[in-house]
Each structure stands twice: as structure tokens, then as C-alpha cells.
Amino acid sequence: MNVPLSSSSTTGKKLPTIEMCMRELDREKAAQYYKDRDDGRTMIDKSGVGQIFPEATVHAHEFEPFGFSMNTVEGFAISTIHVSPQPESSYASFEAVGYDISTDEKLNLVIERVLSCFRPKQFTVAI
């Protein structure tokens, strides 16, 4: 689905913030965040998190021996992801502000993109 989500810079329009908390991540998806397997760029590519906002500039950090953090910037918009992949307590969080998610179609697209990266058993969304 090609829905523009680019950030608003000078419209003066207030754009909503979205926050997602995800628990019990799919084991296969969570396994991608172990440093002994991949580096940060590979984690971004394999997991799909770089495609949530594909035009954004990405800064990522992988932790030893596991875990991942990613921040993006696109114009005045920012997003962040943090992942703790260990099976007994896997968790991921996502937050974005400054993107145009003001319609149901745009909001649902972002939620679907995020969920496809982690496939959690439980999640909450706050807007």
C-alpha cells in the first residue's frame, strides 16, 4: 500500500504520536536481535524495521549479547524502536511523532508494518 506518511514541516498542523508496546514476540522474529548472529544493518534489513518509514535516516545499535535500538529522523518526524528478544520476556517498543497518521488508513498502515516486524502475541497501542 503506497500511503504517504511524510512528516509535516510548516503546515502548523499538530500530528499525533503513536506508541506501541509488544510482548511475547514471535521467536523467529526475536532471534534476529542476537548480536552473535547479525550486526545492526543486517538486523534492520532482515527484520523489516527499516521499512516502517522507508525514507527515514536510520541510526541503530545492537547490544551484546542481544538487544537492539533504532532511531529514525525524516524531516521533523522521529521514531524509535527498542527490542529485548530473550524468550522468557521478549518485548519491543515503538514510538513515532511527526508523521501524518491522521487517517485510519495511514494509522493502520503503520500499525501493520510494526506488527509484521515482531508478530507479538500481545500488544497495546496508544495515540
UniProtKB/TrEMBL annotation:
Q: In which pathway does it act?
A: Amine and polyamine biosynthesis; S-adenosylmethioninamine biosynthesis; S-adenosylmethioninamine from S-adenosyl-L-methionine: step 1/1
Which keywords annotate this record? Polyamine biosynthesis, Spermidine biosynthesis
Record GO terms (molecular function): adenosylmethionine decarboxylase activity
Source species, domain of life: Eukaryota
User: What biological-process GO terms show up in the record?
Assistant: spermidine biosynthetic process
tRNA-binding as UniProt keyword: no
Q: Which InterPro entries match?
A: AdoMetDC-like, S-AdoMet_deCO2ase_core
Spell out the Gene3D superfamilies in the cross-references: S-adenosylmethionine decarboxylase (3.60.90.10)
Pfam short name (any one): SAM_decarbox
Family designation = Belongs to the eukaryotic AdoMetDC family.
Query: What protein name does the entry list?
Result: S-adenosylmethionine decarboxylase proenzyme
